[in-house]
Amino acid sequence: MTAVIAAPPALPPPAIEQPAPRQVSYGLVSGRAARGTTRVLVTANGRRVASEALRGRRFSLRVRLPLGDVTVGVTTVAPGGRRSSSRVRSVFALPAAGRPRLVASRLDPALRRSLNGHVRRYAGTAGYYVQSLTGGRGAAWNAKARFPAASTLKLAIAAAVLARYSGIPPPGSRLDGLLREMVVPSDDAAANALLVWLGGSTRSGAYHVNDLMRLLGLFDTLMYGGYETRTLSARIPVRVDERPAFGVGKYTTAWDMASLWRALWLASGGMGPLRSTQRGLTPADARYLLWLAAHVRDQPKLDGRVGADRSVEVLHKAGWISSARHDTGLVFWEGGVFVASVMTYRSWGVSTSSDRLAARVAAVALRRFSLVEG
Q1: Is there a contact between 177 and 170 (Cβ–Cβ < 8 Å)?
Q2: How is the chain split among helix, strand and coil, in percent rounded to 5?
Q3: What does the CA dihedral 79, 82, 86, 92 come to, rounded to 10 degrees?
Q4: Is residue 232 scored above 60 in pLDDT?
């Protein structure tokens, strides 16, 4: 009689904690492996990017992921060749050098001279704020002047909604759909629906958005009701150099919007003022909102020049009305990340010259930071 040798039990698949679906990632791959696992392999879009021995059951690796949308796989290996795998889809990978950290701001006179020349040649009123969040250097002009806010404040609406909601909205849920519609194609009706969700009406919801900005120490931004629909103290000088004249309505500044983006970026790493507010965003909330922003497909503005470089990713939210045109966001490159906010106003009407100005500001800043920060 032939003895039957039992096959070893299958190795349970690893539980991946980070990255998570529908979130940005700075290259951290962490989780828990089955008992008996001796090695962990990590793949990105099917290509191996890491292989490390494992002692114990928890794993945490810093890997270099290809920029943009990626599927991350984790394979665990046990003695005897037993393997098991898990995958996470819908991850937006950002450079490891761009992960959140706290740095002090400081003026870069050479950058200021270069950018001021471009901004002052704009035929209208303009303002900007640019700062490397990796090294701290930056520049600004007219960064405290109030401009009509247009759709830039939809970023603040999203932050207020996620600060109120417990967890990330499930995919396909009404809240997830509204956030996508508001952030990605910049739908006004979705923004109004989210304001109503926040406060019961667009006006009451606007108060919640304003409260969030005040908690961040930003007092030059006003969310004034809904949208019309149709069927940190910086060392970089921020002041008013030239104030545009416009009527009552939503307004914000280049400094306020840059500060909001910086706060969201820090929150994605569990740091900064949004984590210390009473209704704080969790790191997962912030990574989800940045993931939404990474999929904005607007007419090229900040990304008008740098966006052609495959080693650069621009996460941004623009705003446009007949007399004002802005773009604000984060520019990631292999050496780090910088925040940029460019605002323009012309009472007789703006044009794509505003978009070209934003593109020049981002391109000049990227060249400067690449040179001085490597």
Answers
A1: no
A2: 35, 25, 40
A3: 60
A4: no
